[in-house]
C-alpha cells in the first residue's frame, strides 16, 4: 500500500517519492523535487495546518508509464534468492580448500582472491575484470595465474555446485523471464561480472534458467567494470544497442542496482533478499517481492518494438 500526502486530511496527491497524482490516484506525470516539496511543507505548517500521509490505492496507479523494451535482470538475490554473505563465505572456503588440494599455499591463495575481487570492483576499464584479477592475484599471492587457472579449470564444474545449498530457487524466476520474452521484451542478465562464465552459468542453472534465454550475460572475461560503476552499465547498453531510457533494471541491491535511476533508467527493487548497505530511502523505487515483480510484469503491455 502506498502513502499519499494530505493537508488537514484532504488529499493533495503527492506521494513520498515526489510523484503527482490526481484525486482518483491516476498519474499526472509531474515530478516534484525536494527543493519544491520543502517550501510547500513550511508554508502549510506556518499556516497552522497539518501534514499527514494516508493510505492510497489502487497499487497499479503507481506504475507510471514507461517506454521500455529491454529488461535487465540481476541474478544473485533477484532471480536466484540466496544469502549473499553465506554464499561468499562458503565460496572463499571452497576456493582455499581447492588451492590446498593443488599443493598451493592456502593463505597466499586467499589473500590473492580477496585482493583480486577488490581490484575488479575498482577496475578502471583499462583491462577486463579477468585480466585485472589475474594480475593482482599473482602479484599478491606469488602464484602464477596462468598455471593456477589451468589447474583450477574444473572447480566450477564440480566443487562450485556445492554452493547451491545456500540458494532457495523460486519457480517464479523462469516464469518471469519467459513471460517477459513472450510479451516481446528483450531480456539480459546484468549480474556483476566478478565470476567466470562457468561460475555464472552454474548459478543461472540453480535458478532454473539457462544462459541462452538471455540476449546477454555479463561475465568477467569481457567486462571492464563491476557494479555499481556506471560504466559497467554503459558496456551493457552498448552491447545491447539500447539507451538507458529503453530499460528497466530489476535487482535487489540498492547501491549496485538502483544506481541506474540516476541515469534515466527505470527500476524495480526486489525485496525478498534486499541489500541496502547504506540504509538509503527506498521510496524513489518501485519495489516488492518476486511475486510482486511477477504481478507487475503481468500488467506490462506487450512490447511494441
Q: How would you characterize the overall build of this protein?
A:
The protein is of the alpha/beta class and 305 residues long. It has 3 domains: 61 residues, no CATH class; 145 residues, HAD superfamily/HAD-like (Rossmann fold); 79 residues. Helices cover 37% and strands 15% of the residues. It has 10 helices and 10 strands. The strands form 3 sheets. It has a 5-stranded parallel sheet with strand order 7-6-8-9-10. It has a 3-stranded antiparallel sheet with strand order 2-1-5. Strand 1 and strand 2 form a beta hairpin. The longest helix is centred in the first third of the chain and has 18 residues. It is globular. It starts with a strand and ends in a 6-residue tail after the last helix. The N terminus is likely disordered.
Key features?
single chain; 305 residues; alpha/beta; Rossmann fold; 3 domains; five-stranded parallel sheet; three-stranded antiparallel sheet; 10 helices; 15% strand; globular; disordered N terminus
